[in-house]
């Protein structure tokens, strides 16, 4: 038996299997149950959301031989089967895009006056009705005004604004909704589980976003992805198929922008071009990532990407969407995307990263510096830069305090934000005597360290007595401020959960009302529950 594509195999056969159009199902079901079926319906919406599918289901509801006129056709009688297979003689389907003339419309409606051959109603399903000519609409209008009792018109269009108001006024109009990304991804997960196909949830999310609200497009892309990935759906395979930038690559790009590294930004853009990435989609992914960061910052969630200053995130987002708007005006998509990313570097609101404004003015010197910073891949420990020095050492000196706790105090009190603070929080230092400080940076965050950030670290630590700062990228067993925050948060959470479990009042309430504790949030001030 020949393979049937998912979009046809999974096409809904009744209102109960229709996804995402509950408002239309409810209205049509009530009309069928109460014998208030209108003579003409107009279904509008984007492609692949179910316009013609709803029309065919309605035709079944009107002509089912077993259940009669109802919202639940039997799906087994000859009328239901013939409608599903597209061979029911009293369901006349017309593609208005190929039959736009008045003669075609007149020929179509000549037999409307005659009774149906088999069913109760003769149903005219006209798809893309907005393609009809003005004369054809006028010919249709007469029948719409005074239709025979046995005729029902089901019109479908993607552009309702092109349908004359004289036709609109004689139809009940239903606007089909675009399906949400979550709804599409969830449905695809159920489908692929039934098909026995392994799929990564993030890959399904990419397909759902690419479908832009259309379930049919989502199923077609899923079919394509199954073939492209040889029976499995991975994030990398779906990204390559769609010409999209993965979230990991978007994160790397944003890290390079936050670090003020024009070399890395241009190198990443060149990699996108080599992979034939759609630069409009790349800008959209960057904007979506910035939106996610902004939401996390606004709701108080933490994360490494969220270390960008909120004003920087807002500015970068605005630049990204303006770049998307202006991309068709650029000499070519790549140069338009590059200029958008370089504009983010040039107009960064973070004072610590404004050094990046000159980072791309001298490309030869910049390339040499970048080359000198690189260490052999086989070396487990390498220096990111030479020691930085400053002529001034003003401010309060707490550097003579011994132990890692003094370093934690410095990081807590220092005036740093964005990437600079994140780097400091992932460094450790024994804070020995003297004004020559050595910081050990967690290698997982070395990609954010560049000349501008080294200067920012130097300026940040000067008020605490640091005359010379040396940053080395190497693993360390000492507890960094970031790790300390995680440990303290975990301990506070454990104490809060233990307090709730031991509280007789809480346990009594839970037992009396049959409730359960869904979430316990430690009190930031007292360390207890809040």
Task: From the structure above, extract its key features.
22 helices; alpha/beta; 4 domains; Rossmann fold; 530 residues; five-stranded parallel sheet; Zinc Finger, Delta Prime, domain 3; Helicase, Ruva Protein, domain 3
Number of extended strands: 10
Task: State the CATH architecture of the largest domain.
Answer: 3-Layer(aba) Sandwich
Spatial sequence of strands, sheet with the most strands: 2-3-4-1-5
Report the structural category.
alpha/beta
User: Helix fraction?
Assistant: 40-55%
Count of all domains: 4
CATH topology of the largest domain: Rossmann fold
Q: How is the topology of this model organized?
A:
Elements lengths: L5 H4 L12 H12 L6 E5 L6 H13 L14 H8 L5 E5 L6 H8 L12 E6 L6 H12 L5 E7 L7 H4 L3 E4 L5 H15 L5 H11 L3 H14 L6 H8 L4 H13 L2 H13 L4 H21 L10 H17 L6 H14 L16 H11 L8 E2 L4 E2 L14 H10 L4 H8 L1 E2 L7 E6 L9 H11 L6 E6 L7 H22 L1 H10 L17
Parallel strand pairs: 1-4, 1-5, 2-3, 3-4, 9-10
Antiparallel strand pairs: 6-10, 7-10, 8-9
Helix pairs in contact: 3-4, 5-6, 8-9, 9-10, 9-11, 12-13, 12-14, 13-16, 14-15, 14-16, 15-16
Can I get a quick summary?
The chain has 530 residues and is α/β, with parallel strands linked by helices. It has helices spanning 6-9, 22-33, 51-63, 78-85, 102-109, 134-145, 165-168, 181-195, 201-211, 215-228, 235-242, 247-259, 262-274, 279-299, 310-326, 333-346, 363-373, 404-413, 418-425, 451-461, 481-502, 504-513; strands at 40-44, 91-95, 122-127, 151-157, 172-175, 382-383, 388-389, 427-428, 436-441, 468-473.
């Amino acid at each position: 038996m020949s393979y049937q594509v998912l979009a046809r195999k999974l096409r809904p056969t009744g209102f109960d299997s229709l996804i995402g159009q509950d408002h239309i199902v409810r209205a049509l079901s009530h009309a069928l149950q109460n014998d208030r079926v209108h003579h003409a319906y107009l279904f509008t919406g984007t492609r692949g959301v179910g316009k013609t599918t709803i029309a065919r289901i309605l035709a079944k509801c009107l002509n089912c031989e077993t259940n009669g006129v109802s919202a639940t056709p039997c799906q087994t009688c000859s009328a239901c089967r013939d409608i599903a297979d597209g061979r029911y003689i009293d369901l006349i389907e017309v593609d208005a895009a190929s039959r736009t003339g008045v003669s075609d419309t007149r020929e179509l409606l000549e037999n409307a006056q005659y009774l149906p051959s088999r069913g109760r109603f003769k149903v005219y399903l006209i798809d893309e009705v907005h393609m009809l000519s003005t004369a054809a609409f006028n010919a249709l209008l007469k029948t719409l005004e005074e239709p025979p009792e046995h005729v029902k018109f089901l019109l479908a269009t993607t552009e309702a604004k092109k349908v004359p108001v004289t036709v609109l006024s004689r139809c009940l109009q239903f606007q089909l909704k675009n399906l949400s990304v979550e709804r599409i991804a969830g449905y695809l997960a159920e489908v692929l589980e039934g098909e026995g196909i392994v799929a990564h949830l993030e890959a399904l999310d990419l397909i759902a976003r690419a479908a832009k609200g259309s379930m049919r497009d989502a199923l077609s892309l899923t079919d394509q992805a199954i073939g492209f990935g040889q029976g499995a759906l991975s994030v990398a395979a779906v990204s390559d198929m769609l010409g999209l930038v993965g979230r990991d690559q978007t994160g790397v790009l944003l890290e390079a922008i936050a670090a003020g590294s024009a070399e890395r930004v241009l190198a990443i853009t060149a990699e996108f071009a080599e992979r034939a990435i759609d630069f409009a989609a790349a800008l959209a992914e960057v904007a979506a990532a910035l939106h996610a960061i902004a939401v996390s910052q606004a709701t108080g969630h933490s994360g490494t990407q969220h270390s960008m200053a909120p004003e920087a995130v807002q500015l970068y987002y605005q630049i990204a969407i303006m770049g998307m708007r202006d991309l068709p005006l650029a000499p070519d998509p790549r140069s338009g995307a590059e200029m958008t990313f370089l504009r983010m570097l040039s107009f960064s609101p973070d004072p610590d990263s404004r050094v990046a404004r000159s980072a791309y003015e001298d490309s030869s010197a910049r390339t040499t510096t970048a080359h000198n910073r690189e260490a052999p891949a086989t070396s487990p420990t390498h220096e990111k830069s030479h020691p930085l020095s400053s002529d001034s050492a003003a401010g309060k000196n707490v550097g003579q305090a011994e132990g890692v706790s003094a370093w934690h105090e410095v990081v807590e009190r220092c005036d740093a934000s964005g990437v600079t603070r994140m780097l400091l929080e992932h460094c450790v230092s024994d804070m020995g005597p003297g004004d020559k400080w050595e910081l050990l940076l967690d290698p997982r965050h070395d990609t954010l360290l560049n000349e501008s950030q080294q200067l920012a670290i130097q300026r940040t630590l000067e008020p605490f007595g640091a005359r010379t700062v040396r940053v080395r990228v190497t693993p360390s067993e000492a507890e960094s401020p970031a790790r300390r925050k995680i440990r303290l948060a975990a301990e506070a959470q454990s104490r809060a959960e233990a307090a709730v479990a031991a509280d007789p009042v809480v346990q009594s309430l839970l037992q009396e009302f049959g409730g359960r504790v869904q979430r316990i949030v430690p009190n930031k001030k007292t360390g207890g529950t809040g």
